[in-house]
Amino acid sequence: MPLSSEKHQELEKFAKEIRVNLLETLNHLGFGHYGGSLSIVETLAVLYGQVMPMTPEEHARKDRDYFILSKGHAGPALYSTLYLKGFFDKYFLHSLNQNGTKLPSHPDRNLTPGVDMTTGSLGQGMSVATGVAYSQQMEKKGFYTYTIVGDGELNEGQTWEAAQFAAHRQLSNLIVFVDDNKKQLDGTTSDISKSQDFVAKFDAFGFESLRVDGSDIGAIYQAIERVKASGSDNPKCIVLDTIKGQGVEELESMTSNHHIRLDARQKDILDGIAKRLRQELEVAR
């Protein structure tokens, strides 16, 4: 069933709130992983705003859904989401990557409230997510594990070892999102590794896979509902067709936007974009 009009608008607003807090956080720092953080904003909004509406109280329970951000360099997007869900105060955001911070550039479960797994060494998050899903399957309590991996991250052989294990164990409660934003640190994903048909590749490993517009909140939600309702014992993969820097035209158009250190002109532009988005949110209240 599609989202109601009211819920869709609520999630669109939530995504805008994540995006503006993300921009303000990185702009304050002056550098960071803008591109791959922005490309997962809509997916985080759907997960935390509807599919697994996590609260600090819910997170304290063992029996619940789990989320693992395997592409840990997108930590700033997760931090903005967790702040909006009440896991910590806003001043935490402006401590990103500073000495003594609880918000390192990549998520750390021992430092940051709401983080389920320390990630950043690419490939490991998907393996851990597979293990968590396997544990949930054995306990038979009906919970899901969600993980977001990067398209460049899938260059890591460890991800395919995890995929093979997940399919062999029929982990139907594992939902893997591939952030197919077409770029990685060293260039375009197609130039670095030609294996670009991720739906076909995950299908070949025994997943039930589909591709959706990763900027379309309604499409993301319906994709999750579709794979959950399929009745298949296979693990699930949703490939998100995204743009690195999604939702911020100045960043979408940059050739190299994986990690950016802002010059004065860029900072002025991005500060202006963040201010405009913040004003739009205030008007909509």
UniProtKB/TrEMBL annotation:
InterPro entries: THDP-binding, Transketolase_N
Pfam families to which the protein is assigned, alphabetical: Transketolase_N
Recorded superkingdom: Bacteria
Ranges where the Transketolase N-terminal domain occurs: 13-264
Cofactor(s) listed: thiamine diphosphate
Keywords: Thiamine pyrophosphate
Keyword Amino-acid biosynthesis: no
PANTHER family named among the record's database cross-references: TRANSKETOLASE N-TERMINAL SECTION-RELATED
Sequence similarity: Belongs to the transketolase family.
Name used for this protein in its record: Carbohydrate degradation protein
Gene source species: Streptococcus agalactiae LMG 14747
